[in-house]
Amino acid sequence: MLAVLLGAGTYAGRDLFADGAVVADVATSTTDVPAAIVGKIDLPWPAEGQTSIAVDGLGSLGSRGTTAPVPIASVTKVMTAYMILKEHPLEGGEQGPMIGVDTTAAQESHSLSESTAPLRNGQSFTERQMLELLMLPSGNNVARLLARWDSGSQEAFVQKMNRAAKHLGMTGTTYTGASGFEESTRSTADDQLKLAKAAMDLPVLRQVVGMRETNIPGIPGPVVNTNKLLGRPGVVGLKTGSTTPAGGNLMWAAEVKAGGKDRLVVGVTLAQRANTTPNEGLTAALERSGKLIEALREQLPAALDGMADDQSD
Questions:
Q1: 49: Cβ contacts below 8 Å, ≥ 6 apart
Q2: DSSP H helix total and E strand total for the chain
Q3: pTM (2 d.p.)
Q4: What is the C-alpha R_g of the chain?
């Protein structure tokens, strides 16, 4: 296997992000679901923002709304977690190396203007615990701490994020920070859908984003996931994001039994109630994504009824 050094991070396995590399394990399907199937599905697409949906083994169900890049807020953290696990892979129940909390991360935990995790200077947590603090409560300070741990600086880590986006085919995406707090981090629903597929292919990340809550020694608990759709039938992830400029955003994943097999459906809903309040935007993103998931769980099985496995792959 090829291991490539980039900055302070070492990639295990295939080199995903070096320019000119052959990238076998980040390919994303652009196949559309057959029109005969799409014609049987009537989805409640949001009337604002932009939304994209795809079904594992079938392809894209299409996109609706605007196509210009928009702020994605903490949905950014999916790429942060993806990068950390690509550079520092975990398997099964592995916890990974210990990561120390620095003064910057501890001070940022007291911010009143962004979501953070309550970290104290001198604490140490495992890589797996840090990923949980990153993804469940959406800790911006954890995102920046992981960036420094991996690459020495957030700026160097962001360069890796943008290289990863390029190799995933995310042509309308620009990352400017590891947390998504910056309005200048922008993407599209189509681009983030490509990342959603790749993220759910990482077993540990899939486990983390499916957790409704967890307890971490040293952190006042429980640590609760901001994704309030978890717990609904079939919902297995993925990540919320909300700021005033971005509105409410949700990268979501659900399992639907259809066509004789369990299928993973991933979707991205962006720019819901933008320029209102983060809470109003997130409430809208969760509500509208929830309606899409419910409709898919109801309609996709009937749309695929009678399809043989070899016709639906």
A1: 65, 66, 70, 189, 247, 269, 270, 271, 272, 274
A2: 9, 13
A3: 0.89
A4: 19
